[in-house]
Design goal:
six-stranded parallel sheet; globular; alpha/beta; 18% strand; Rossmann fold; 9 strands; 7 helices; binds 6-phosphogluconic acid
């Protein structure tokens, strides 16, 4: 990990969610003050649900100007939006259906597609269109939320995947044999590493080993390859997830 990496260890999942919601609000306020809009990339999995639920309620919800917020997804499973494994479905239930965000400001990946390659290309175009990017220009999202899989994956970038070497495409359709839903879509490393801010949310004792591995000097885990070139990287861990990190034991 680079020297710019910040690590915050919180007492448990509730404190993690509370802190994460505060970080998201702060990023929104700063981005809207500076550029008139906030571009947020949500992560999937179970960990962020509590953060999304907090963000949907007071005091967090009212501090974000939802009319000036654009929401994207870092990855998606190839399932319909109302499927229990849909990342969009989870975010909609926990957050997006509860806040005054215009539906046109939520950009979901079409997990219900017949043609994954086309859906990945379509999402890349949707990002470029929404952000007004020139041809070949990478998006610079204000805040990207990520989780950590027990195998070290982040978004749907899995260990050993050829997509880890992607340099041109911003969105890829991938196949992750080990995952419960193997067919997925993911933002690629160049996009994650072009973000202004990336926050990992990691909770639970089952993540302690992989957190330690991600922080080892020679780590080649996908999560360790997320290092924004010109942005902030912060890991929010709960005490259980941080248990094997030396920093967690030190005062
Ligand atoms: C997904 C993800 C994925 C997730 C990790 C951690 O769609 O599966 O976005 O990268 O963040 O697998 O998931 P948990 O929070 O469920 O442990």
């Amino acid at each position: 990990m680079g020297s710019q990496t910040e690590i915050k260890v919180l007492d448990g999942p509730a404190a993690l969610a509370e802190t994460a919601a505060g970080v998201i609000v702060d990023a929104a306020v700063a981005a809207i003050a500076a550029r008139g809009r906030f571009t947020l990339v949500l992560s999937g999995g179970a960990t962020p649900r509590e953060t999304y639920e907090r963000l949907a309620g007071p005091p967090f919800c009212d501090r974000i100007d939802w009319q000036r917020t654009l929401v994207f997804f870092g990855d998606e499973r190839r399932v319909p939006p109302d499927h229990r494994d849909s990342n969009y479905g989870m975010a909609r239930a926990a957050l997006l259906s509860k806040v005054p965000i215009p539906p046109a400001s939520v950009f979901r990946i079409r997990g219900d597609t017949e043609d994954p390659e086309a859906a990945a290309t379509e999402y890349a175009r949707a990002i470029a269109g929404a952000l007004g990017l020139r041809r070949g220009e990478l998006p610079r999202f204000d805040l990207v939320l990520l989780g950590l899989g027990v195998d070290g994956h982040a978004a749907s970038l899995f260990p050993g995947s050829p997509v880890l070497k992607e340099v041109f495409r911003t969105v890829a359709a991938v196949h992750a044999t080990a995952a419960a839903v193997p067919q997925r879509f993911t933002l690629t490393l160049p996009v994650l590493n072009a973000a202004a801010e990336v926050i990992f949310l990691v909770s639970g004792p089952e993540k302690a080993k992989v957190v330690k591995a991600a922080f080892s000097d020679q780590s080649t885990l996908p999560a360790a390859m997320v290092r924004p070139a010109n942005g902030r990287l912060c890991w929010l861990l709960d005490r259980d997830a941080a248990a094997l990190l030396k920093t967690a034991a030190e005062p």
